[in-house]
Specification:
two-stranded antiparallel sheet
């Protein structure tokens, strides 16, 4: 099929513009109407694909990817919301660094969504006396994104790669050096910022540095439902059985969790509803953008593109589109350039390029709120608890460019500049 006309990309551009500008210029209006805008623009693209292009294959693939994405993200959100972690005392910068590192490790076991939803509330509580924007943003950087680079469970694009045939342990075997460098640099930058914040805090806050913290856990029965979700990840046939098991686990968790746990977590469905609606629009409207990229890959990338092209290309578009479908788009582009769709041949012939796609998708997913599913949910939960969060552009200009971008450059320089 020929590449879609560029005019079909317009709804996607308009949706991204609305997501970035709406909450800043007209927050109350955006809150009332974001669903109409996202679903309306998505309907325009879906209508074109259904009635004009008659491309049922693309519609079916996109629907399947969206359902899988929402089932995984939504079920992890619900089950994690049923586990309450109680903390006592105020965290020091060093304790915060330890907490974030543990979160980065857990992200590979529970996924970035599960780890983020499990830890964001205790993270806010343990910093309640001085919590500010950098606490939320670096939590997104480390726990909700970069931390999940070691297993296919860790981040949606790596899971999609696993479904395409990338061996399960290939990710950990080859991505750990980039993970270690990225996490170490981000934790070091966070420690400097948090130390400044801690020093500037009132004396009464600094004096609690020696306070004894008491950790309490409630709702641990939900670990069984988490195990069901993680086990379902490995089920591919029959179609939608994986998603059905995940949804069943979420329903079971919600109705068996004590109300006191949900109350303590200030749990409600608003954050996940927002993700469901916005990503319905994003998945729908970005179909022509990804199709155009796939069709024009040989002309854009050349005959033998360097790993740098895939690292920065996948990365930049992951921040703008969402890293999961962008990963598939560049993997498809690499297949077109290499002249083979066999994943094992690609791993042999284009090893570093696939590694660049994987790391670029995961790391750059932290660059914007729409780069990865958990980002929006973390922002929404923080806003519900009256924590200052940057705007869409504030996130990029105040945090991504000055703090995340240098880390990305170092990772590129060390591993992908050849």
């Amino acid at each position: 099929m020929a590449a879609p006309h560029l005019i079909l990309i317009l709804p996607f551009v308009l949706l991204l513009g609305a997501i970035s500008a709406g909450p800043v210029l007209a927050p109350k209006w955006w809150l009332r109407h974001y669903a109409k805008i996202a679903l309306g623009l998505g309907a325009v693209t879906l209508g074109c694909y259904l009635f004009i292009l008659r491309d049922l294959h693309s519609l079916g693939d996109t629907a399947h990817e969206y359902v899988s994405f929402i089932a995984l993200v939504g079920s992890l959100y619900v089950v994690s919301g049923g586990i309450h972690i109680g903390v006592k005392g105020e965290a020091t910068p060093f304790k915060n660094v330890v907490f974030l590192f543990i979160g980065a490790v857990i992200a590979n076991l529970l996924g970035t969504t599960g780890a983020a939803m499990l830890l964001i509330r205790p993270w806010i509580r343990m910093n309640k006396y001085r919590v500010t924007a950098h606490h939320i943003v670096f939590f997104i950087f480390i726990v909700a994104n970069v931390g999940g680079c070691l297993t296919p469970i860790g981040d949606p694009p790596l899971f999609l790669g696993y479904l395409q045939g990338v061996p399960f342990w290939w990710v950990a075997e080859h991505c750990w050096p980039m993970w270690l460098v990225g996490i170490s640099l981000l934790l070091f930058i966070f420690y400097i910022l948090d130390k400044i914040n801690f020093i500037r805090a009132p004396a009464a806050v600094r004096e609690v540095e020696t306070a004894t913290e008491s950790w309490q856990f409630d709702g641990l029965a939900n670990l069984v439902f988490l195990a069901v979700i993680l086990g379902a990840v490995f089920i591919s046939q029959p179609m939608f059985l994986r998603e059905a098991l995940m949804i069943a686990a979420a329903i079971g968790s919600y109705f068996t969790t004590k109300k006191t746990v949900h109350t303590a977590n200030q749990f409600d469905f608003h954050p996940i509803i927002e993700v469901v609606i916005l990503f319905a629009g994003i998945f729908s409207t970005m179909m022509p953008a990804l199709a155009w990229l796939n069709h024009n890959a040989p002309q854009l990338l050349g005959a033998n593109p360097a790993p740098s092209v895939f690292f920065w290309g996948t990365g930049v578009l992951s921040g703008a589109l969402d890293n999961a479908p962008t990963y598939l788009g560049f993997l498809s582009a690499l297949s077109g350039v290499a002249g083979t769709s066999d994943i094992h041949e690609l791993l042999d012939q284009q090893h570093l390029q696939i590694l660049a796609i994987s790391v670029g998708a995961v790391f750059f997913g932290a660059a914007t709120y729409i780069g990865n599913g958990p980002n929006f949910m973390v922002k929404s939960i923080a806003a519900q608890q009256n924590v200052s969060t940057p705007t869409f552009f504030g996130f990029i200009f105040k945090f991504t460019l000055p703090f995340l971008l240098p880390v990305l450059i170092v990772v590129w320089w060390l591993f992908f500049r050849g």
